Structures are given as C-alpha cells and as structure tokens.
Amino acid sequence: MHHHQDYYPDSLNLHQVHGHLIHIDRPPYSLDQTKPFKKRYEGSCFCKKVQFDIATDAPLDAKFCHCPTCQKLHGAPFQWAAIVEKNDVHFTSGKDQLIFWNSEEKSQEYHLPCKVSCNNCRTPIMDEGKNMLMLFPTLIHFKNSEDQRKFYPTCHIFYASRAMDIKDGLPKFEKHKGSSPEIPETWSSEKDDTALN
Looking at the keywords, is Lyase present (predicted)? Predict the structure, then answer.
C-alpha cells in the first residue's frame, strides 16, 4: 500500500518501459490507493496484449477530432476520443507492451502530453495528459448499445481540417470547443456563411 505523501513525487516510483521511465505507481498504470476503483467497463488493444479497466459510467466529454495530427497518427479521416480522469482507468495487463510518442517533440520520450500505443499491434490506446486521458472508445468492450451511447461524441473539433463533411447534426468547431467559432457542416454552406454565431 502506498502512502499518500509518496504517491505523486516526480522523482520516485519510476519504471522502465521500452527504455522510457514512466510513473508506474500512478494511474492509469497502477491504482490510486487513496480512492476506490470499481470496474465498469473493460477494454483492450487489437491483439489483446494490453488490457485495461474503466471505472467511470460515462466520460467527462467525447469528441471527434479532425486535426491533421490525429488524421496521420490514426490513419483515418478523424479520431473518436473520450475524456476521462486518469484515476478512472487502470491497465490490468500489458504495461510492458506500451510505447509512447510525443507529437510536439516528435520523440518517443515519455513526456506528457503523449500518445500511448501497443508495441505489438500498434493500436493507439489513448492520449495521456497530466490529469486527464483521451481514451479511444472503439477499444472498449461494450456489453450493450446503451452503454456505448454514453461515450458518443458531443461535437467535432478541428472541423476546418476535415477530410470529408459529416452531416450528423453535432456542433462543429473550427479548432477547440469553447475557444474557436462554430462552423457549418458542409463546404458548400461555408461559401455562403463564414461561421455560425
């Protein structure tokens, strides 16, 4: 059992994973011993070497991201991400299979924020920030559509960089929600209206 005072120091409890030092005693790599964790969902990468549990019933938010970085790193027109607290995710197996990528520094250093993937099948698992995670709901083994709907996106971000129009009625933001204007769903309507207010 960890004592609360030594739970979060930056210089302690480091563990080497593929040559990178990570805080293996911190969520999501280990449980926070100061609060209970009740598994609600299970998830895994494609090859199932990396497995994790999720304790929250629903994410804080979920979004479709159309930024060029997500398009390239996911090999897809956009990415679906759910924002959850680190304490609500726990890797149950495969921590030694994780690899990291810092897109800002273009390096495999474990330096937050960073992208976390499986070293075996290369499945993107999450983007790890200092306090939150952007977890990819396609990896969650939902038991029913009602649970899956709790993770549905509320908006599109970086929609100005989209590869295609998405006519789903969700709000579309030029960049980040809350700090950029909402824009129309289709290219043709953008010619008439520059932004929705």
Answer: yes
Structural tokens at position 93: 């197996």
Please enumerate, as own/partner, the contacts of 147-151 that have beta carbons within 8 Å and a separation of 24 or more. Answer: 147/41, 150/57, 150/58, 150/59, 151/58, 151/59, 151/62, 151/82
Query: What are the pLDDT digits (tens) for 74-130?
Result: 999 999 999 999 999 999 999 999 999 988 888 888 888 999 999 999 999 999 998
- Amino acid in position 102: N
Q: Which CATH number fits domain 9-153: 3.30.300.30, 3.40.309.10, 2.170.150.70, 1.10.1740.10?
A: 2.170.150.70
Sign, CA dihedral 39-40-46-48, equals positive
Rounded to the nearest 10 degrees, how much is the dihedral formed by the CA atoms of 114, 133, 83, 93? 120
